[in-house]
Structures
1.
Amino acid sequence: MGYSPEIANVVDQNKKIHPHKFTLWVGIASIMMMFAGLTSAFLVKREQPGWTNFQVPVAFWYSTTVILISSLTMQLSLKSFRERSMIKYKKLIGVTACLGLVFMLLQFVGFRHLWINGMVLKGSGAAQFLYIIAGLHALHVLGGVIALLTLFVRSGNARIKSYNAVPVEVVSTYWHFVDILWIYLFIFFLWVQ
């Protein structure tokens, strides 16, 4: 039994990935390759003379907990948006953005601790790689926080009553990605210390 041309066209359109989601996945793939290259280079370079080992600061443990909680609040905000519970969505997206900022603050505290304890940029390849890897991750988290704040502001605008879930889904996917990326980096730092 065949579909009419109109129904077949709708079925074909539902199978296609949204262009924003496709672009996001291409971006995620390239970011993953960049971090895989940097962590691989870290492993190769650590055998060189003058390499300094480091202890993972306690603040990194706290920041890991914060970013895991933010992943949960992001998922709950997406669920609230899909259910059109906009007040709950706005609160949860705001909490997620705040948790992102707390994560960045804790990262700053952790790296300040490393700096004070002698993990400086000059002379140690470990410090250079560590600051580059974490700095790039922080930039990606900052981008996510900006996207979250944009969604938060848009949710409070009475003139915008769009229930298109694509922007929220894209930001949610990106936020989960930077969360998973930090978990990977955190485990990597624990392993190489």
Note: The first helix runs from residue 5 to 15.
2.
Amino acid sequence: MASAPAALFAYQRPDHLRKTLKALARNFGAEDTPLIVFSDASDHPDTEENVREVRRLLQMVRGFKSVRIVEREKRLGLAGNILSGVSEVLNAFGRVIVLEDDLVTHPAFLRYMNGALENYTDDSRILSVSGSMPHRLRMRIPKRYPHDVWLSRRNLSAGWGTWSEKWSTVDWLVESLETFRSDPEAQQRFNLGGPDLTPALLNAIDQGRDLWAARFSYAHFVSGRFSLLPRRSYVRHIGYDGSGMNTFWNPFHILDSHRDAMEAPVFPKHLEADTELQERFRNAFRSQGWIESWKRRRYLSQSAK
């Protein structure tokens, strides 16, 4: 099985990026993995030096099968950088593992992602695979559940992957939005992946925010497909410290850990959706609804200044 390429998206956080690269290089199979890094450009004097530092750091990256650095000449923003970069890598390789510059991975992350992409490439029910999970204090897996992976109605964007033929079906313009907006029952069904999904989608589009993940979750919903998630997370998110463009300080992510990740996960051929797991997952996002509301109010007040 050939290793899928890893596409890493960076902007202006060299300290976070250094930790991300160090952890990724320590992954099993890193030496067989092509790494493509998309470095977004600065559009403000306050970020110019950090972007230069990021690009100096990227010139020293070693430990992978190959390293290619794509330095954007103009600022694309998070969504523009990711959507164009992922499409480029998928056109060349057919599958991709996607990371951002504030994710610290378990040494078995690449092994898990490659196994998931290989084993479920022909499963039409699965649109994406994700490498993260809420901490077990937020979401407990039922003891009766026998597998290392499960089917989620919602993708998680902290370390994920997909295939070219499935990615090409996504409607990034969300052309059905107005029909969805006036359909409370459809919104309720979408929110089975988490009660924050409908507000996140509508706010992202109505406010023109530089976000893409809510649209990707919506693509899972409208196509009736799933994201494959692990029993335990392979990713620790270090970006909820106020340093990101679209991530504010969030106390729920203090719990993030990948210490319990399985080094040799098993991927069952016949995997069925589990309603109890999905309900527990949904409730994990219900608990942070108040902070999402606070974040939206803060964003609106800052935008108005």
Note: The two ends are 53 Å apart (CA to CA).
3.
Amino acid sequence: MKAISAPKTTTLAALLAFSQFISTIAVQGAPSLSLTPGTSQSTGSLTINDPNNQTWVISVSTNFTVWNEVTAWKVFNGSFHTSLTFQPGGTPVFYRATFDPARQTIMDTTAAALLLPASPFNYANPALPANYLTPPISLEDNTPTNNPITDAGAALGRVLFYDKRLSTNQTIACASCHQQQHGFSDPRTFSVGFNGSLGTRNAMGLTQARYYQRGHFFWDERANTLEDQTLQPIQNPIEMGMTLPALVSRLAAEPFYTNLFTQVFGTPDVTTNRISFALAQFVRSMVSTNSRYDVGRRIGFANFTAQENLGRQIFFGQTGNATCAVCHAPDTFSAANIFNNGLEFPYVDKGVGGITGQAADMGLFKAPSLRNIELTAPYMHDGRFATLEQVVAFYNAGIVDNPNLSPPLRTGRPPQPPGGPLRLNLTASEQSALVAFLKTLTDTNLTTDPKFSDPFNYGN
């Protein structure tokens, strides 16, 4: 590749001549531009990577002297890609991308920045099964009265969730560590922060976050509400490294954000409370009710294989002595409490006890919903298990005794005193059956639904 000279206002330039594509490298490692050949001699593609989200003016020339503007493209969330065409076999054609400080706001509109539907997606009133509308499941709903889910509010939350502006160097979004195709979790053991540093716990999946009656969030429940939780990663020195005043100023400078905030809250003011409210609405809208389990529940599980039905019976304690459903209650498969599941002793990670300092809280953690568990590997707060088979094998025979081991994982049931760690004594085929049942909780409708996808316009 070869760099070419350009006017003083130009930080990036690229040459396209006949079927040869030559691109410059980034100035000081910030923005970068590349041209790549297409499927024919007359097509190619232009990609601009720019974490500063600037506007670039694209011009064409045949002689490097007279340049005619073709269009201007705004990078809205780190990158932009478009196709280019030219006439082969004739006069060489040159393309140039230039940066003009005076034209940075020419495309800052909602229509240009975001690929939103003409009619808002339905977040506020999804079609929920009847049992979600009555106790006990309705009592698990942690939606506060002052922040109900609205279509406009969750749509704003969707934009914020995918926006890398929320990190100090504009390289990390909430979605970087909570990926839709992975049940809004991270397939890495520990997530990578804005400066390349690793976190200390696996990113918990967000499916069914709305249905957790305790209403606390993070593995150690240090956030009292989901609204509180949404702001903490933004300020975390490893995760996103941002300050809230700087974030407010950054978002308020974007016309498409002031437009969205007006739609939701009635005025264009960007505040931390409004940011947290919108993000919480979007996360609470991630409700899974379309798995094979949900279908089976309506038809007596006639859609299950014999293996899956055996796994279901084991999970619910109808066969054997497993207590899975005690900590992961149907049909949200969420927990009603915090638990010590006997991963280790002494405690490497103190969990809730690390926050409260109380001996009785050491090694206790929030138990996530099992919805989409097939997609959220690796497992446990430290990502120690790579597969569901390893998880089941642990609960079958690997629970470690410790002073705070939760009663459902001990032998002995009231009125008998609690005993040592529970051993399920499942055969290999029974363990496989339990894994097969857990996979019936997969809901690909949630992981492919466009209303939960990245809304930014990255070109074509």
Note: The chain is about 25% helix and 10% strand.
